[in-house]
Design brief:
9 helices; binds adenosine monophosphate; alpha/beta; 39% helix; Rossmann fold
């Protein structure tokens, strides 16, 4: 397994691999890896000859009052986990190289970024789009695997790749959960034992709304109201948003035709957690 820090060296490697007809699969991450990330790596392995995983805590996707400084990092641990997965290359660049002085380009995927996390994390998806384009230009993958835990992120990247005729395929991967339903997240490490128990209400609300949907309840307000009651019943869980929205445009729905996305963001203590699930029969 190679560890590459230099952007130039990564580009040269990618060029050489492409010249020798190797298929490159890519998993972009911010590190502090868990089973969710590793499932994406396995998916990339299934599709490709060479698997590249990037580890980069991207400063431009964090707001001024967010957790950039305290975001968990442990390169040595990540390195071991990726070695066990037979990863071929870890791309581990530095922020000063990714964003040299004078950097001023950005790409905006309009519309979709106005909803859900885009509403409460202004500029977040501009930062995401920027780093993903840069990483694609550096790693030159044929496939890039993204988790549906960040559903809005996946849809934005999928749209961007289509709109910009980028020559790769983005592959979605379902949310990986703990046995008790909590979606895996690097941020779960911030949770105290008590907060972790409280956080289970998020998955409970997903299960409840799925059942309601199966029973024929299609009124978005009734579904949201039930979710709100459940989340609020757990003291210390502060709702950022609860949304029943279109699975493609992410626009809030007033009527559900055949399916909808239930998306939640909430603070458990100081930790912001997100989750989602598609409601369908
Ligand atoms: P992050 O390191 O949080 O930026 O995540 C890197 C990639 O892993 C993104 O595509 C995420 O959607 C994905 N990911 C994070 N958590 C999970 C999970 N629990 N299940 C599946 N994919 C995940």
């Amino acid at each position: 397994m190679k560890i590459i820090n230099s952007i130039y060296e990564m580009q040269k490697q990618a060029e050489a691999l492409r010249a020798s007809k190797k298929i490159i699969g890519f998993v972009p991450t911010m590190g502090y890896l868990h089973e969710g990330h590793l499932s994406l790596v396995r998916k990339a392995r299934e599709l490709s000859d060479i698997v590249v995983v990037s580890i980069f805590v991207n400063p431009t996707q964090f707001g001024p009052n967010e957790d950039l400084d305290r975001y968990p990092r442990d390169f040595e641990r990540d390195r071991k986990l990726l070695e066990q997965e037979n990863t071929d290359i870890i791309f581990y660049p530095e922020a000063k190289d990714m964003y040299p002085e004078g950097f001023c380009t950005y790409v905006q995927v309009r519309g979709m970024e106005d909803f859900l996390c885009g509403k409460s994390r202004k500029g977040h998806f501009i930062g995401v789009a920027m780093v993903v384009i840069k990483l694609f230009n550096i790693v030159k993958p044929h496939y890039a695997v993204f988790g549906l835990k960040d559903y809005q992120q996946f849809k934005i990247i999928e749209r961007m790749v289509k709109d910009l005729n980028m020559d790769l395929e983005v592959i979605p991967y379902p949310t990986v959960r703990e046995k008790d339903g909590l979606a895996l997240s690097s941020r779960n490490t911030y949770l105290s034992e008590e907060e972790r128990k409280k956080a289970l209400i998020i998955y409970e609300s997903i299960k409840t709304l799925k059942e309601m949907f199966k029973k024929g309840i299609r009124d978005p307000n009734a579904l949201k109201q039930r979710a709100k009651e459940m989340l609020e019943s757990e003291g210390g869980v502060i709702i950022d948003y609860i949304s029943i929205c279109d699975t493609e445009t992410l626009e809030e729905l007033t009527i559900i035709k055949d399916k909808a996305l239930y998306a939640i963001a909430c603070f458990v203590g100081k930790t912001r957690l997100i989750d989602n699930s598609i409601l369908e029969v």
